[in-house]
Fold Glutamate 5-kinase.
Amino acid sequence: MQSIKDAKRIVVKVGSSTLAYPTGMMNIRCVERLVKVLADIKNSGREVVLVTSGAIGVGFGKLGLKERPCDTPSKQAAAAVGQCELMYTYDRLFAGYNHTVAQVLLTRDIIDVEKRRENVENTFARLLDMGCLPIINENDTVAVEEIEFGDNDTLSALVASLCGAQALVILSDIDGLYTANPRTDSNARLIEQVSEINDELRALAGGAGSSIGTGGMITKLHAAEICFENDISMAIINGSKPESLYDLIEGKPVGTLFMR
């Protein structure tokens, strides 16, 4: 596996807890910092693909709802509103650094059907050849259980495979994978490198993530398994410090690196 330092094409996944406050309103400062870093990395000659969560979270905030909806029609309605807001924000901010973005919305049936998968691969290849920065999300507005990915950690690993990336970086709400829950155990220790996903690690991963997201550490381990299968290096770092991406691509120790 190539190290992330050597990766020419990098997929970065950002979660709802990084993009938005618990109110559902967008965390403008964090989004602006993330866009600036990604634009700068792209300026350096690397190709960048962004997998973004946040459509439902941002949507329920814009709709004035007090909490994330639970029923499918309400979640799909919130996603329709939130996706507009997300892409408007990304387009405006990346344009300030002279980068063109492209929206790609996926559902699992597109990945599972060979011809559709090939079309997605060709689209990614052409967008990157044209110098675009693809921004991918699950198509939450139409996705139902039969065709949904369920979490964007898994989606980001599949996207990394589809676009031929050498590295995936998942921006989380903690610094990486720990030996215990760092929010409840003061003795929890950051695991700096993982070369194999085993039952012990799965047991450490725990349950769900934040109140506005759908993921947790267990979905990130699943993403790592997909990356291992496709010879892709992966890292988990803290999304509240997007500047850490610079350290990562310079080969400095940051977060948890998944690499054989």
Observations:
- The chain has one domain: 4-258.
- Residues 207-215 have pLDDT under 50 and may be disordered.
- The first strand starts at residue 9 and ends at 14.
